[in-house]
Amino acid sequence: MLVGITGPIGSGKSFVSSRLEKLGYRVYNADARAKSLVEMQPELRQGVEDLLGKQAYDAAGRYDTAWVAEQVFRDPGLLVKLNALVHPVVVRHFLEWAHAFGQGGKAVFMESALLPRLSPFPPLDAVVLVTAPLDVRLERVEQRDGVGTSQVLARAARQASDEEFARIATYTIVNDGQREVDAQLQLILQSLGEQV
Prior knowledge:
By secondary structure, this protein is α/β, with parallel strands linked by helices. The chain is about 55% helix and about 10% strand. The protein has a five-stranded parallel β-sheet with strand order 2-3-1-4-5, with helices on both faces.
C-alpha cells in the first residue's frame, strides 16, 4: 500500500513521518530526495543546467537551492519548467523505492509538501493531510528556520492552497498542539488495515 503525507509549510509533516518511522514504517521524503536526485541523476542534472544554466550548481557540484529559488521566485514560468523536469524523476524514483521496500505487506509512505501539484501524480492508495492553524504554522517555521513572518508567508503563498491539499486528502491529522497526533495516526493506520 502506498500512502502520501502532505500539508502546508509548518503543519508537521516531518513530525508525522518521524512517528511512522518510530512505528517501523518506511517514509520517502520526496522533497529531500528531489534535491539529491538533481545532483546525482545525470539526465536530470543536464536538464536543470539546460534550463537554468551551470549556476544552478556550486563549484563543488552541489545544487544551489538558494540561487535556484531566487530564479524561480522571479519567474514563475521557470518553476513550472523545473517541476516538469524534476517531478517525473521523483515519482519514478519513489515507485522504485516503494517496490524495493514495500515488500512484506506494510504500507510505505511518501512525504511531500508538493504532493497536490506533483505531475504525474503517484498511484497512491491514500493521502494523509497534516494541518495546523496558520498562527501555529508561522510560529513553528519562524523558530525552526530563524526567519520572519513575511518570509514564511511568501513561502506558503507558493505552495498549494488549502483547497488543493483538501482535494487529494483521504485522511486528515490536525497537529495544532491540542490534539494527540499519535492517536489520530493510530486510527488512520487501523483504517488502512495496518496492524498497530
